[in-house]
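Batch job 17 of 40 flagged for manual review because the log was empty.
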Amino acid sequence: MKRKLIMNLRTIYLGIAAVGITFLSSCLKDNGPVQDFSKSPALVGFQYTGNNAITFGQSLLPQAGDTVKLEVTLSAASLTLGHNVDVTVAPDDATLAAYNANTNRPDTPTVYSQLPADTYTIQNGGKVTIAAGQQIVPLIIVFDGSKIDFSSPVALALKMTSATGATIATNLNTAIYLLKLRNIYEGHYDMTGQRIGYAGATAGSGVSFTVPLSGNYLLPTVTLTSVTAPLADLGGLTILVTINPATNICTISEDPSNPSFSSLANDGAPSTYDPVNHVFDLHYMYLNGAGHLRHIDEKLTLTGP
């Protein structure tokens, strides 16, 4: 009986082994489809971080000379090619019209106008050569902000119109620059100073508290001579700072685009801008909801664009 049991177990083990070998053999002989990317055509498009074209925000000074570098990129299995790829880029009204018609964009319902041809130049008339062995080549665009009317939304829409040596990637063949004015005061600033709270409507009521100011903030352009700045440490609230270019005296008022306290006004020492060191030295006040005086001494020092 014991001998028969051993023989039966051997038969079972051999059967399982045979099935396993058959299954493994079947796997090894599998001749299913294999994708060979080495045979994919070389593509050319504008450089983006994703798989689709997005807009570029670009602020310009009201003068000639601001430049941008639009990268034209080759995508090939071998990274680069052994021959040149020639691409032509041109302004394209249809691309901008399609963008304006897209109501799912963040800036809807803004309608942009195509930038007039005399306000910019495209390097080499828009002709770009990606030489053999290269992958990315910049196309330089030079703007003349002194000729641009920033009173209404403007943009520059471009499109790859032709290419030899590679195929144009239709999902990456357009570029749109949404343009806005940048004055000489715009930039990121470090903030120091203090906000002083008084017990009543005047300084004579006595100081209730003092809050130190800190942080780094962007002061964006409003007009050629004005920016918005943080209202002390009151997160999210802003003031309008208007600079007199002749005297560098600053006028503080409520930011119409972000209303807060209608009583905002200059207070104490003059508020000034130092054009050499790029420093705002601001002194202003407001009355809070209870009618109590708040005085702010706020210094803003430029740290970068």
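Reviewer: the log was empty due to a logging misconfiguration, but the result itself is present. Helices lie at 2-28, 93-101. Unflagging and moving on to job 18.
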